[in-house]
């Protein structure tokens, strides 16, 4: 069975701090995708990144970076120099077609 | 990417009634999905909306409660039937965009349903 675990329920940081959101997954599939989505208070789900199971290259996009390690089944997300606008719930998801979501991590960035 | 719209954006309904939610995409897509997000919870897949055939439901969801239509490659509807307060959730449609090595799944803005 597939499973996504986001052990951090809530994280609070002060602006400009770096923060890492953890995601651990379980799957027996050899080919799969991993995703991160952001859900701000307005409720919409914003696509951040997709990673293929065969591509373990880390990725950086501005203040965002992602670390994918198949050996530990982890796909962690780091926000550098966090800002108040980063406050949201962040979901990690796994799958092809149907997505299995983690329970989400609520990030609060205080000024 | 895809631009996805949903109608209505929110509604308050009485128990025992039904509500149909519409999902429109600005391009043709093969795969469309419906998810539910109960208050403070994560997203759970309800069903895959198949064009030209019946939807494929996940465990715990049945067609009588959540009938789905997919008349073409850009449109789908989800009906929440005989509603109870436990159906109060955000309902989101999503679409799969595949091309070459690219694979993304985008979500609509959601429909916030409150059942009283």
Task: Explain how this protein is built.
The complex is a heterodimer of chains A (111) and B (116). Chain A is an all-beta fold and 111 residues long. Chain A is 0% helix and 56% strand. In chain A, the strands form three sheets. In chain A, strands 2, 5, 6, 10, 11 and 12 form a six-stranded mixed sheet that branches. In chain A, strands 3-9-8-7 form a four-stranded antiparallel sheet, with no helix packed on it. In chain A, strands 1-4 form a two-stranded antiparallel sheet. Chain A is globular. The N and C termini of chain A lie far apart (41 Å). With 116 residues, chain B is an all-beta fold. Chain B contains no helices and eleven strands. Chain B has strands at residues 4-7, 10-13, 19-25, 32-37, 43-49, 56-57, 68-72, 75-80, 89-99, 102-107, 111-115. In chain B, the strands form two sheets. In chain B, strands 2, 4, 5, 6, 9, 10 and 11 form a seven-stranded mixed sheet that branches. In chain B, strands 1-3-8-7 form a four-stranded antiparallel sheet, with no helix packed on it. Chain B is globular, with a radius of gyration of 14 Å. The N and C termini of chain B lie far apart (36 Å). The model of chain B has no long low-confidence stretch (mean pLDDT 93). Classes of the chains: A mainly beta (111), B mainly beta (116). At the A-B interface, strand 5, strand 6, strand 10 and strand 11 of A face strand 5, strand 9 and strand 10 of B.
């Amino acid at each position: 069975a597939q499973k996504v675990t986001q052990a951090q329920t809530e994280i609070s940081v002060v602006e400009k701090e770096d923060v890492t959101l953890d995601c651990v997954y379980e799957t027996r599939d050899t080919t799969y995708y991993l995703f991160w989505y952001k859900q701000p208070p307005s409720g919409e789900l914003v696509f951040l990144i997709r990673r293929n199971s065969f591509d373990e290259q880390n990725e950086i996009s501005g203040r965002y970076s992602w670390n994918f390690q198949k050996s530990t089944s982890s796909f962690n997300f780091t926000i550098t120099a966090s800002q108040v606008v980063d406050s949201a719930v962040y979901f990690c998801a796994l799958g092809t077609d149907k997505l299995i979501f983690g329970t989400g991590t609520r990030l609060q960035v205080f000024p | 990417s895809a631009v996805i719209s949903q109608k209505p954006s929110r509604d308050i309904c009485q128990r025992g009634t039904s509500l149909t939610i519409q999902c429109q995409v600005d391009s043709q897509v093969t795969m469309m999905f419906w998810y539910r997000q109960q208050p403070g919870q994560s997203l759970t897949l309800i069903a895959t909306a198949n064009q030209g055939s019946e939807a494929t439901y996940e465990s715990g969801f049945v067609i009588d409660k959540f009938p789905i239509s997919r008349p073409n490659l850009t449109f789908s509807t989800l009906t929440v039937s005989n509603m109870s307060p436990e159906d109060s959730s955000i309902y989101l449609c999503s679409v799969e965009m595949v091309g070459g090595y690219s694979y993304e799944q985008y979500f609509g803005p959601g429909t916030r349903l409150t059942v009283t």
